[in-house]
Amino acid sequence: MNRLFSELQWLPRAPEAFSLALKTVANSAGPLGRELQALALHGLDLNQLTKLAKVIAMARSDGKSLDPLVPFRLAVLSNSTIDLTVPALVASAARHGIALEVVQPPYDQVAQEALTPGSMVNASMPDAVLFALDYRALPLKLSLGNAEAASATVQGAIGYLQALRNGIKSNSRAVCIFQSFAPPVEPLFGSLDRALPGTLRSIVDAINRELAAMVFGSGDVLLDVASLAEIVGLADWHDTQLWNLGKFSFSDELIPLYSDHVARTVAALRGKSRKALILDLDNTVWGGVIGDDGMEGIQIAQGDARGEAYRAVQRMALDLRQRGIVLAVSSKNTDEVAREPFEKHPEMLLKLDHIAVFQANWNDKATNIQAIAEELCLGLDAMVFLDDSPVERGLVRRLLPQVAVPELPEEPAWYARTLAAAGYFEAVTFANEDLQRAGFYLDNARRANLQKQAGGVDAYLASLDMTITFQPFDATGRARIVQLINKSNQYNLTTRRYTDPEVTAVGNNPEVFTLQVRLADIFGDNGMISVVICRPGEPGVWEIDTWLMSCRVLGRKVEHMVLREVLEHARHAGIHKLSGTYIPTDRNKLVIDHYPRLGFTKVVEEESGLTRWELPVEGAEPEGAPMKIVSKGFRTPKEMLTA
Amino acid sequence: MDEPQIYARLAQIFEDVFDEDAMNITPELSAKDVDGWDSLTHIRLILAIEKAFKIKFSTSEIGKLQNVGDLVTLIQARA
User: Tell me, what's the ipTM?
Assistant: First the structure.
């Protein structure tokens, strides 16, 4: 049995005290989602998965919240015994951020459940129905050498699956997840089984091909069990004794693997597939350490035994990029030293052009990864981080638990395979749109989902339950303020960069109005997402020196709420006009109409594209958004009066 | 492996599968004595025991098991 797959070796091993940790979570008041997900993010065996599922079941019956896990109701129809698998499905779903509820009808009632309008499955209005069928569920007849009869058998099987699908579709809007079929291990002839029509092997092959075609692009999904079985080996997949003992479709040792694959599919349906791959450099994309070994010393040459392993990682990264996964680099190196192989090494497959964000510095990787996520306007839960160092992996896992960090084996030859095995970038046709938009303005599919449900932008915004917090610059926020000021390129009106001491000085200057803005919503705390600096200009005028925002919160009227707060303070300070400038760069086209959208009037437009805008404070009533407002840390309005 | 060791290991496995804290595993113990020891749990137990002791039982051996004592005899013969 290949342990990479059977033990899910891209996941860290469960801690010794796993049972104890699980009990502690079970006894806490909740919401339990984060801790449950954290515990699930290990290579758990069937017993551990079962225990975790039990805790989730108890939490549900105790009415405890499973937030922030996203609920999903999955009905499972099977011709085999799935009782051991169901708890594993629930626990594996938690790993992928899903609170799974499984609807399990009585054994082997597939057609009855799918075709009867009031059946348990149909009445439960599931989000998806998994047809966990194996080849024994299909009406298959051998017809050795008879192509016509074989074709009829194939059509019969497809027809059966179509009927099941139609049954579900006419009763609910559930997505149908079909499994491809792992053929049996025992050939009748040997090599001839594949080519000769009417053998079990060639019939199952044909069914799988037709099934894939039937499902592709339809909105339903194929779970390619046939490939999974092939990957681990059909002889390890099928356990004939276990089928005889209790009608188990496949070996119990592969239940954790199978469950993880089902969970990935469900997570992909909820838009949770990852979108970016962040690469470490030394000993991850090349052998050796560029700072020490230099260009001649690093190993990436074709034909070099070690080098080939790292080339495979580069090749995989390039292939992923071609399908829309964004690439970034986070390396502990001097920037020039780290870039050199990309620019000059003839054997490098990856070039600088392929890398959307290149972070080579001496900061800790957690800080870098946050900056990368910011720059890409993607959540941390969209990131995968590949690093050969267990120390770096541990750090990122601890500080940024939403980032996926696969374990890597000692031997680099298995790096690429391990990354692929982890399935972070699993996709279903449902999420095709998201894959194509792997650019800078990626929106969270959950929010898109919510928008579809809520009907109308305002209702959507209200359903986000947002809280916006305004504070002046302070010591606690300074590091993040400096980061935002220096890293924001797109939603940045003037792209003025300030060093840490300069930010401190600005914050301490009583004549300057500063704002650090935080936003939280039902999905969590977005942290600090906007920074504003207003300086005194002509008497009674505030010049907006800096206005920047994280693109993560675009379209939520945050900028309107910020303007309202600025106006509030301007009024108290006796200011009668706000003046703003847009300084165009090749990165901030996005904000060309920021000021007009907020009701400002243009007063100047220069050839360079620079524009100046004004807004009288008196009578300005920007539209707000349904948000709770917290405003704290400001000196009283009287003290804010400027000369 | 001697008998006490086997019983100790079996106790761990039973406690794991049944999610109980301290089970008393005696030779006479059988499915009728334990809540939740149904045919499915029985298979889970067999699978866990096979893995723990790195052995495989034949279908007919499994079919003949009446109680834990029978199980221990089988394990001793194999392990």
Answer: 0.90
